[in-house]
């Protein structure tokens, strides 16, 4: 079936099979955007997660697209997919929106100055270029750095002034804090209870993905549904799970 026929069938009848075919056709666009967005985000945000958010945006674009608007679907979907990714990142990001924007400005300003000068720039130069005080710059970097995974091999200044690796400063895991043990057990109990509140299909999807470590495509083969549908079901299951956990914590 030609692409035109697929679109005609979907737009006139909202045929499910045609919808799945259109989603699969545009998955490369989702992956492309996820790769571009991931470059500008903290390391703990995985590209695979971005792709999942992007698929949701793609499905929403299909639902709301109207050829009468005059835009091509690719152009319309581009903004919906990218917006879905960024919206989810903002929801997960603990930094206030204004602080996040300032951090993005810091990154772009630093990259621009270093590109122009061909060398690293000092904090003083960077702060002046951004129009903020040196203290404000340091505070912004301090909070933003908490978002990033850090290497334990990185050397820092020890209490005695010597250089030590971060690994050497980590508390001995063989002597854990008893309160931490209790908290961890309680968290596992709550998680197990929250999972138990989910439906059978949701439990199966989470088990296949996180326990059996199957890919979305493999799960789709097990459930006999498309990869995009599995992505949607996984996202829905995670939202339900978060809600159950929040309800338990509030009670």
UniProtKB/TrEMBL annotation:
Domain of life of the organism encoding this protein: Bacteria
Residues of the RNA polymerase sigma-70 domain: 215-241
GO biological process: DNA-templated transcription initiation
GO molecular function: DNA binding; DNA-directed RNA polymerase activity; sigma factor activity
Annotated signal peptide: none
Assigned keywords, A-Z: DNA-binding, Sigma factor, Transcription, Transcription regulation
PANTHER family hit by this protein: RNA POLYMERASE SIGMA FACTOR FLIA (PTHR30385:SF7), SIGMA FACTOR F FLAGELLAR (PTHR30385)
Identification of the protein by name: RNA polymerase, sigma 28 subunit, SigD/FliA/WhiG
The organism of origin for this protein: Desulforamulus aeronauticus DSM 10349
């Amino acid at each position: 079936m030609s692409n035109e026929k697929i679109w005609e069938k979907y737009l006139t009848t909202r045929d499910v099979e045609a919808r799945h075919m259109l989603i699969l056709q545009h998955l490369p666009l989702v992956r492309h955007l996820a790769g571009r967005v991931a470059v500008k985000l903290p390391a703990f945000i995985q590209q695979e997660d971005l792709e999942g958010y992007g698929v949701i945006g793609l499905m929403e674009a299909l639902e709301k697209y109207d050829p009468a608007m005059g835009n091509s679907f690719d152009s319309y979907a581009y903004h919906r997919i990218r917006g879905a990714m960024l919206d989810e990142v903002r929801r997960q990001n603990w930094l206030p929106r204004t602080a996040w924007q300032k951090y993005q400005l810091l990154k772009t300003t630093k990259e621009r100055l270093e590109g122009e000068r061909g060398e690293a720039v000092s904090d003083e130069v960077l702060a002046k270029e951004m129009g903020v005080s040196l203290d404000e710059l340091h505070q912004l970097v301090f909070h933003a750095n908490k978002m990033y995974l850090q290497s334990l091999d990185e050397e820092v200044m020890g209490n005695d002034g010597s250089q030590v690796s971060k690994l050497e400063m980590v508390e001995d895991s063989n002597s854990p804090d008893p309160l931490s043990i209790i908290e961890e057990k309680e968290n596992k109990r709550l998680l197990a209870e929250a999972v138990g509140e989910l439906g059978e299909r949701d439990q199966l999807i989470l088990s296949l993905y996180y326990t059996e470590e199957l890919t979305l495509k493999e799960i789709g083969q097990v459930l006999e549904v498309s990869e995009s549908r599995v992505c949607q079901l996984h996202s829905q299951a995670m939202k339900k799970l978060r809600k159950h956990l929040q309800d338990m914590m509030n009670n």
